[in-house]
Amino acid sequence: MVATSAPGKAILFGEHSVVYGEPAVAVAIDARVHITVEPCEGAWKMDGYPLDGDRHPHVASLLDAVLGEDFQSHAIQVRSDLFPAAGLGSSAALSAAGCAALLSISNEPLDKEKIATFAHLAEAQAQAGRASPTDTSTATLGGCVLVSDKREESANWQYTRSLETPEGERVWEIHSVNLPPSASEMWLVVGYTGIHAPTAELVKGVADLLTRNPAKMEDITRMGEVARNGVAALSAGDFIQVGELMDEAHILLAGLGVSCPELDDMVEVARRTSFGAKLTGAGGGGCMLALTDKPDETAAALEMRGRRVLVTPLGAPGVTVEKASKN
Ligand code: PMV
Q1: pLDDT tens per residue across span 213-267
Q2: How far is the CA of 109 from the centre of ligand 1 (A)?
Q3: Quick check: CB of 85 below 6 Å from ligand 1?
Q4: Among 209, 7, 22, which Cα is nearest to 119's?
């Protein structure tokens, strides 16, 4: 039996602008997808039912890529701590944890670059050939991750990821960001609107806005600067500056039309007890996050608004094999 897990993620800076080549910064959060895999009779199973590639495209794609055909059937069980479809990277965590489990049962080395690659390809295959490696790299590496179209001096370069997309080849440089010891006193409070908003529609909305109003591209460029300044402030432990940049990022994102009244309200409430707050991920619903050293107060204020919250340190361990035994 093999048990693995991988963390979800929250984007600190760079959602949407990353689509236009600007950098994005994400942290692994303390909420994980857990997977167990054990041999079974008959066909492969997922949560007790025969594995259906249409319902579980990530797993089907990983089976193909990692094991190929004619491998002993196994039963896969998945348990998730994450709000589903809320922009917290649950499918990336599933892909990274699933890949580690499949490599483990086939006695292959658990190379992180390999896991990040297979997990990214599984995400891309499930999303019509388009996926940035932000979520899968964060689920794999853990900690704080910077994704850019070039190697950035402010962070530790880890590997290059490329993908053949319908628009041609795309290349990303993946880095880890070292956080100072003072980051252990900081918390992210993630608040969930309860609204599911499809990422693809929001990305298209921004593309349409930029076509109608090309001057908005200046805001995308500014979002890239905010992300780079954010990495510098995070690395220096200047959390007041990080918070101010998060506030600015929210204003810029709202200007692209991807916030909503619920997110604006939660951000406003959370700011009273935090360094800064912004929507995280695609927007239109989904989640917001606040950076705070008073997580109980910030969480309570959001809960008073009837919202579900999750409190996490800045960063969590990446993909992990919890157990690998012969029985
Ligand atoms: O799917 P989410 O909520 O993690 O957001 C994706 C981030 C975007 O920048 C909006 C899209 C992308 O592919 O990077």
Answers
A1: 999 999 999 999 999 999 999 999 999 999 999 999 999 999 999 999 999 999 9
A2: 30
A3: no
A4: 7
